[in-house]
Design a protein that fits this description.
With 351 residues, this protein is an alpha+beta fold. It folds into 3 domains: 49 residues; 46 residues; 230 residues, no CATH class. It has 5 helices and 19 strands. It has a 19-stranded antiparallel beta sheet that branches. Strand 18 and strand 19 form a beta hairpin. It starts with a helix and ends in a 5-residue tail after the last helix. The relative contact order is 0.17.
Length: 351
């Protein structure tokens, strides 16, 4: 403030002296001595030098804006995750639950025994006797064939290992039909029976859930079904009485199709939570006491961990690196240029 006042006083003094020399020149009829003219020119130059320099505009505000924009773009790509992604799941589990989205049918299954509860029984040949309550049929040298299991739309299915050779097949949905063919020597509800001509039974589910238990012969693998469309998927054990859900995963991997089939290994008992899914269970097999699943489709949300779930969905940076390397290159270049520009502007360099 003092420097500005001194400069103002100096300019006023020089202006007064210049006016005095000008008046002196006028008194001499415009013929000022050469010395006075030179003094006047010198005073003019001094007056110009005394004028304060215009303040240099600060570019720090621009630098801050560029820095914020650059950081925002990089942060968005690093932390923003895709809402939907295509995956392929291959896993060995002891239990799985899913909901089908259109009518489906299982493959033919040869079983050692079958137990059914919670379903209406159609027994025209009275294989089970009159007014049966539930059904348990065991092979005793004969053959039990599950011809098919037909399920209607929106049926919820739970598959769970019961033992090394037994599989629990729970159905929650009306109108499911289980067709069974019997032949040879069997035990029906504990009583011996022999069917020289194959006989048929059918079970139809109602409003209440139905439970079916299959025991497979020996170590034979059972090809349960293929290409079932689903819109929900859970790999947790189905015992609702437990206060803490237990993961049924034994091993497996998730392949992210949009990341060039990048593989993510699954640990035993890892808590994997799937959001809404839209895809198909390509194959489901019961082998050596485990259920082997292959699923492909899209998922909306994927996390791991029990207490504090961590997201597994790919970030925008992952997607750009795998599918749009040119976009990633330009984004990186823009970020670097933006940071450099911000630094130079902050230091008041001319750019």
């Amino acid at each position: 403030m003092d420097q500005q006042s001194a400069a103002a006083r100096l300019r006023q003094h020089l202006a007064n002296r210049a006016r005095e020399y000008a008046e002196s020149a006028l008194k001499q009829d415009g013929q000022a001595p050469l010395a006075d003219v030179r003094k006047l020119e010198a005073l003019s130059r001094l007056a110009a030098m005394a004028e304060p320099a215009a303040p240099k505009p600060s570019h720090r505000g621009i630098a801050i804006v560029f820095a914020i924009l650059s950081l925002s773009v990089v942060s968005l790509m690093l932390f923003k995750r895709a809402t939907k992604t295509a995956v392929e799941l291959e896993a060995l589990v002891t239990a799985v639950r899913f909901r089908i989205t259109e009518p489906v049918q299982s493959r033919s299954l040869l079983v050692k025994s079958i137990s059914v509860s919670g379903a209406n029984i159609s027994d025209p040949d009275e294989v089970l006797g009159r007014a049966p309550v539930g059904a348990r049929i065991e092979a005793d040298g004969g053959a039990i064939t599950v011809q098919h299991i037909k399920l209607s739309n929106a049926t919820v299915v739970t598959l769970e290992r019961d033992s090394q050779s037994a599989l629990q097949f729970d159905i929650n949905g009306e109108g499911a039909v289980i067709e069974v063919s019997l032949s040879g020597k069997l035990r029906v509800s504990g009583r011996p029976a022999e069917f020289k001509i194959p006989r048929s039974l059918s079970f139809t589910t109602g409003a209440s859930p139905a439970d079916i238990r299959f025991v497979f012969p020996g170590d034979a693998d059972a090809d349960l079904f293929r290409q079932w469309p689903i819109d929900s998927l859970s790999t947790f054990e189905a015992d609702e009485s437990r206060t803490r859900r237990v993961s049924s995963i034994k091993s497996g991997a998730i392949f992210f199709e949009e990341l060039n089939s990048q593989e993510r290994k699954l640990r035993e008992a890892e808590h994997i939570q799937f959001g809404a899914v839209d895809g198909r269970i390509r194959t489901a097999r019961f082998t050596k006491g485990e259920i082997a699943l292959r699923f492909d489709g899209t998922i909306q949300g994927l996390t791991t961990g029990a207490g504090d779930p961590r997201p597994l969905m790919p970030t925008w940076l992952d997607l750009a690196r795998a599918n749009q390397p040119l976009v990633l290159l330009w984004t990186t270049a823009a970020y670097i240029i933006g940071v450099l520009f911000a630094i130079l502007k902050w230091l008041d360099f001319n750019v």
